Amino acid sequence: MLRSSKARWLLLSRQTFQGLLFCGWLIAGCSPPSPSNDRSFQDLVADAQKEPHAELRAKRLIKIGYRQGKLQDLAGAETTLALAWKDCQAISDDTTRAVVVSLLAEAYAGIDNTVDARRMIDTAVGIVEKITQPENKARALARVAQAQGAAKNEAAAVTTLGLAEQSAEQIGDPQNRATAYCGIAGVYHRLGQNGPCDRIFHAVLKSAETVSDVKKRCPIILEVAAKQADLGEDAAAAETFDLALQAIDKIEEPFFCVYAMCDAAERLSEVGLNAKAQDVLQRAERRAEKIPEPDMRQQAIQRARSLISRLRKGEGLH
């Protein structure tokens, strides 16, 4: 896998899938499903508390508490979210703790408990102040801003996003910096701040032009394209994906070109553009067959064909 930096930034979303589910319900403005008839909330809480890791335990409890609140079990929600707060305090890593406390704030905001939502936001802000690593600080600040937006404090959210941008600017690696900026742009979009969102995308693409190594330039462009698609900016995403594919075609080494095309296909599939991903993979397979070194040719062909097979089976690539 050639997208290690993307994986680092997406660690939050991939590791916290269960904990983040309530955010989708918040944005959609609808209530989450109730537990099945044979699974009470008490059972769900009991199961969650068996989780040995404080971070994951807190996220599961946050999800459950939010569901309880949306189903008007406010007393149960308060009890469950209080347990989640206790687990938040047991998280040793400052970045992770700030992120999870921000999720807890969003849950409180989602059930109209503005007092505790603001208390959790203030706590998360205090934790973020301890973070010195720019990439981690940018990520945590973006999460705090999203919580502030959920608590209907848009002015504070915009201010926090400005701080997140300042931290992102200090990130040395261009791809990691681009990934951080795209995460910030996503929060601006959720706040309805389309101007700053577009500004960030434009700036990231402009900065990509200064990256001389095309192999390092392509993932930056793909990051923007994927985020644009994720935010529903389909026309802009299609244009940016095309820009990335044009850059990939300029990679002179056939082996690296094939792998970059496979990476692009994965990003396309992640946002539901499977037909275009299939086309890119077929091109990658044809390109792989022209690699002169037998071992590298076989490896590249297998890489492309395995992804083609998964798409044909309807599995997707993410």
Percent strand: under 5%
Determine the number of helices (DSSP H or I, runs of at least 4 residues).
17
CATH architecture of the domain at 1-34 and 41-171: Alpha Horseshoe
By CATH, the topology of the domain at 1-34 and 41-171 is Serine Threonine Protein Phosphatase 5, Tetratricopeptide repeat
| Shape assignment | globular
List low-pLDDT spans: 1-22, 25-31
Give a quick rundown of the structure:
With 318 residues, the chain is mostly helical.
How does this model look, in words?
The chain has 318 residues and is mostly helical. 76% of the residues lie in helices and 0% in strands. The protein has a domain at 1-34 and 41-171: Alpha Horseshoe (Serine Threonine Protein Phosphatase 5, Tetratricopeptide repeat), CATH 1.25.40. The protein has 17 helices and no strands. α11 (174-190) packs parallel to α13 and α15 (254-270) runs antiparallel to α16. It is globular and about 65 Å long.
Any chance you could write out the topology, listing elements then pairs?
Elements lengths: L3 H6 L1 H5 L1 H12 L12 H8 L5 H17 L3 H15 L5 H17 L3 H15 L5 H17 L3 H16 L4 H17 L3 H15 L5 H17 L3 H15 L5 H17 L3 H15 L5 H19 L6
Helix pairs in contact: 3-5, 3-7, 4-5, 5-6, 5-7, 6-7, 7-8, 7-9, 8-9, 9-10, 9-11, 10-11, 11-12, 11-13, 12-13, 13-14, 13-15, 14-15, 15-16, 15-17, 16-17
